[in-house]
Design a protein that fits this description.
Rossmann fold, N-(1-d-carboxylethyl)-l-norvaline Dehydrogenase, domain 2, 8-stranded mixed sheet, 15 helices
Amino acid sequence: MKRIHKVAVLGAGTMGARIAAHFANAGVPSLLLDIVPPDADGPARNKIAAAGLDGARKSKPAAFFEASLSRLVTVGNFDDDLKRLAEVDWIIEAIVENLEIKRSLLKKVEAVRKPGTIVTTNTSGLPVAKIAEGFSEDFRRSWFGTHFFNPPRYMRLLELIPTPDADPALIDAVTHFCDAQLGKGVVRAKDTPNFIGNRIGTFSVLNVMRLMQEMDLTIEEIDALTGQAVGWPRSATFRTIDLVGLDVLGHVVTNMTQNVHDERSELQIPAFFRQMVERKWLGDKTRGGFYKKKKSAVGKEDERLALDWKTLEYHPRQKPKFPALPPSTWRKTSRSQQREFACCSASTATEARHKSPTRQAHSYGRRSLTCGRIPPTAFPKSPTPWSRLMAPCARASVGNSAPSNSGTPPAWKRP
């Protein structure tokens, strides 16, 4: 089986820099390359890659397990350092989602890589086989897709997309490496638009936006309802979009609507989202998206602002408040209705965070709520036993968003 001792990441954007950081967490050195800025000279020729690495150092949640691990990432540029790709065992392309730009860069990579070097793309949905169409046989045998999810250190899923020409031995080598050393749960996907995760995620996000407009809810209310209250990560819907980037989501949606013909959906990107992209409010990468920080006076904490999607103006973030279901009403509801309300009530989920006892999960010191999101004290006279009521819902959501110390730990035993 092919050994992987050193990698190269092409593209030092949000994903590329954090992929390199995740390899550093596993003790694997990497070469991080990007374009040369116009009219740059000397060390400034590596300015874009260096900025990407600096962003990974400062990112929250932390991309590096320890800040000192950034020493394992060496920055460079496509003009001066592409020949150094002959030193690595695996090259990961993570540049802009444009087919022709990717092919142009990979043609240069083909000329300098040593035979047998694995080359993969981190594309979120472009046809993997088409990117390398017409390349040499050796290149196509070593070429397939490895789609990491943002942030790479914490998101356990890794989609591996084989191509018809890919060498099964190299696919097995990457699968083993990502499982054993990067802590990933590798899922093999077909080379279809947006693969698996983004295909499902696209529908989910657009449907949430549709419901938000129909029900006249705020950004904060949606994130309260679609976060830990339903077993999703704390970043919920709109905070997750800010992390990923509104431009990336826009590309994924466009790619799906243009290339998927076997599914019909009336879901579309809403007008307010399109206006945000036009204004370059692209999330964390631009310091402005559905949420942003407002600089406060010296010595005071920065104010957190949330977007009003109707007016596209920011206001101080407000804590959502939802009416609680009275115990008398609760006792009159059926068991299925109780379960549905228990899973979806953000107000009781908030109560749970304050009243429910916590325990230490054995995976890397992770803390989580005790087998569910609503404490037994929330409805003390409920006719349905607490354990029977919440067990199915709790098992389905355990361990979804907890960070680890190096990568994402293997699945731990559920209660």
